[in-house]
Design a protein that fits this description.
63% helix, single chain, 10 helices, 0% strand, 2 domains, mainly alpha
Length: 258
C-alpha cells in the first residue's frame, strides 16, 4: 500500500525534477553549464523565485515572460506535469525508497531522451549510456536477478540496429537501438516486445496522419509531409514502454516462449 501524503510529495518532487530537465534540455551540448541564475532566453532578465515555481508560474504568467512578454514554450509545464505523473506512478509501483529512486531516475532519463530527441532528432550517447546502467540496476534490484532478462535488451534492439545498419542511419537513428536495449532490460522480453510493437504501430499511425493532413493546403502552408521527412522514434518507444510498465499491457504474457 502507498501513502497518499507521500504520493503528493512524489508529485512535487517530480515537478521540481521536471523543471531541472527543462533547463538541461535547453543547455545540454550547448557549452552552457547548469550553474548560475536562471534567466529569460529572450531578454536575458534574471528570473525571480516566483517565476520558477514548476507548473504554476507558467499558468500564473499566462505562458509569457513577466519582463519582456515573450511567449514561454509550453514544453516547460508539459514536462513538469509529465515528470510529476511519472514520479507518482513510480511511487505507487515501487513504494520502497531504493526501488523508487532507481526507477524514477530511469523514467526521468527516458523523459529527457524523448524531449531531446523531439527537439534535435538525436539521442545523446551519454543519455543512452546512463539509461543502460540504470536499467541494469533495475535487474539487479529484482532479487534474485533474472539473468534470462539480460538477452531481452539486445534481442529487441536487433531489428532497429539492422535498420540503421542497412540504411546507414537514414531509416533509423543509431541511438534508437541503444535506447531499445535499455527498454528491453527494463521490461523483459514479452513485455518489451509488446512495447516495441506499440511503438511501431503508433509511429506508423502518426506518420500516416501527418501525410494525410499535410495534403490540406491551409494546414501545410505549401509544405507537404512525405516519407522522406524525419520523425523522432524515441517518443514512440517511450510511449510503448509507458503502457507496458505502468498499465501492464502485454500481448504475449501467456506464451511460455517469452
Amino acid at each position: 500500500m502507498y501513502d497518499p501524503f507521500l504520493a503528493i510529495c512524489a508529485a512535487g518532487l517530480g515537478a521540481i525534477l521536471g523543471s531541472f530537465l527543462n533547463a538541461l534540455s535547453f543547455r545540454f551540448n550547448t557549452g552552457q553549464g547548469m550553474g548560475g541564475r536562471s534567466h529569460c532566453m529572450r531578454c536575458g532578465h534574471t528570473l525571480a523565485a516566483i517565476d520558477l515555481v514548476p507548473i504554476f508560474s507558467w499558468l500564473f504568467l499566462f505562458g509569457r515572460c513577466r519582463y519582456c512578454k515573450t511567449r514561454i514554450s509550453a514544453q516547460y509545464p508539459l514536462v513538469e506535469v509529465l515528470a510529476a505523473g511519472l514520479s507518482v506512478g513510480v511511487y505507487v509501483l515501487h513504494p520502497t525508497p531504493l526501488a523508487y529512486a532507481v526507477s524514477l531516475l530511469v523514467w526521468l532519463t527516458i523523459l529527457f531522451i524523448v524531449v531531446y530527441d523531439m527537439r534535435h532528432t538525436v539521442i545523446p550517447w551519454s543519455c543512452s549510456g546512463t539509461l543502460v546502467l540504470l536499467s541494469l540496476a533495475t535487474i539487479a534490484l529484482a532479487w534474485p536477478p533474472s539473468f534470462a532478462a539480460l538477452y531481452a535488451g539486445p534481442l529487441l534492439a536487433l531489428p532497429l540496429f539492422l535498420l540503421s545498419l542497412v540504411s546507414m542511419g537514414r531509416w533509423m537513428g543509431w541511438g534508437d537501438s541503444a535506447f531499445e536495449i535499455s527498454l528491453g532490460w527494463l521490461l523483459g522480453l514479452s513485455a518489451g516486445f509488446t512495447a516495441l510493437l506499440v511503438a511501431v504501430w503508433s509511429g506508423a499511425l502518426v506518420g500516416i496522419l501527418l501525410m494525410l493532413f499535410s495534403s490540406i493546403p491551409w494546414k501545410s502552408g505549401g509544405k507537404r509531409f512525405t516519407m522522406k521527412n524525419e520523425i523522432p522514434f524515441a517518443p514512440f518507444l517511450a510511449f510503448g514502454a509507458f503502457l507496458v510498465y505502468f498499465f501492464h499491457v502485454n500481448f504475449f504474457s501467456s506464451l511460455s516462449l517469452f
